[in-house]
Amino acid sequence: MSDTKQKLEDLNDRSREVFRRVVEGYLETGDPVGSRTLTRTLSEQVSAATVRNVMQDLEYLGLLDSPHVSAGRIPTQLGLRMFVDGLLEVGDLSGEDRDRIDQTLGNNEQDVATLLDRVGSALSGVTKGASLVLTPKHEAAIKHIEFVSLSAERALVVLVFADGHVENRLFSPPAGQTPSSMREAANFLNAIAEGHTLSDLGAIIAREIAARRQEIDKLAADLVESGFALWENEGESNERLIVRGRGNLLSEHGTEADFDRIKTLFDDLERKRDIAHFLDLAEDGDGVRIFIGSENKLFSLSGSSLVVSPYMNADRKIIGAVGVIGPTRLNYGRIVPIVNYTAQRVGRMIADRS
Q1: CATH assignment of 3-86, given 3.40.50.720, 1.10.10.10, 3.30.10.20, 2.40.128.20?
Q2: What phi and psi values does residue 61 have, to the nearest 5 degrees?
Q3: 155 three-class SS
Q4: What range does the record give for the signal peptide (predicted)?
């Protein structure tokens, strides 16, 4: 049993009900919930003073906080986590939400890039949050790789796939590269890459370089490693993340500090620093996962929450993820089935194509 669930089990019925109603009230309105409000809704007749004592106990446990001395209470991040783990009631996807997602996604005749862009628009439109869509890697077999020198500090790596798809990336090559070392690097890669996908190639390159390092020039080896890393890390992230609906988050926050936190979040997303981590979040769990505030290092500075679910191809392999970002005061019970349905729908559409 997790620590949060154990804490929930340790509460008596009255404390659990007070806690649940404070969190539900806060998620609905965004405002602190006071003892007088609670006394009118509790299942048992108790005084406002009794409710205040219970709220103080919950505050002592780290589950509630009081933003002002005389105000009501709001849940802490720990309190929200405990609510999500043990008390959250996830509803069924409403017919209206389902219809809006289906209508926005349209048919399956679009290319994958257009389809996933529409997925992001659908999610942000339906949830009024910001959406993240991590797109699949291109998994066709590789036909040809080439390095093109543009200057001493800039080079282009070109990848041609067997299905005709072409990708190219600018990168900074290791110092001292020459036309000869670039040709040698390309020849080495083409000798081992043809017929393999990008997913296969990483392990093959590492193994071949280790076995044949004496046969290839060190400059060429460095170029191979740095050029391929572009697809596995930075370059791949720049291409694979679709963010839509950021204006929805800005409209939810009024103070200068809130705007600064949201700006920090999107600055991080623009740099794509933790996108590999974002996919790890989805791959680590089965189905929808919820990350609140600092539980996810990508959003730790912005005080945001993420609801994310992976989607799979026809072979049941996780190839991407969809998610919704919002303030910690998300309507989790509604957002979870929306993200879950969207991920399943995307997986089916991609599987149908293959």
Answers
A1: 1.10.10.10
A2: -75, -5
A3: strand
A4: none
CB atoms within 10 A of CB 97: 19
Q: Which residues pair with 290 in a beta bridge?
A: 307
Beta bridge partners of 238: none
Three-state SS for 298? Answer: helix
Which of the residues in the chain have pLDDT under 50? 1, 232-238, 253
What residue type is 88 in one-letter code? L
Please give the class, per CATH, of domain 95-129+245-353: alpha beta
Predicted local confidence at residue 235, as pLDDT: 42
- So what's the pLDDT on residue 5? 65
- How many other C-beta atoms are found inside a 10 Å radius of the C-beta of residue 275? 21
CB 290 within 8 A of CB 330: no
Helical segments of the chain, H only: 3-10, 13-29, 35-39, 48-60, 77-86, 95-105, 112-127, 179-193, 198-212, 218-232, 234-240, 246-252, 256-271, 275-283, 332-353
- The CA dihedral of 344, 349, 351, 353, to the nearest 10 degrees, is -170
Site of tokens 């050029």 = 227
101, 222 in Cβ contact below 8 A?
no
pLDDT per residue over 120-131, tens digit each? 888 988 988 888
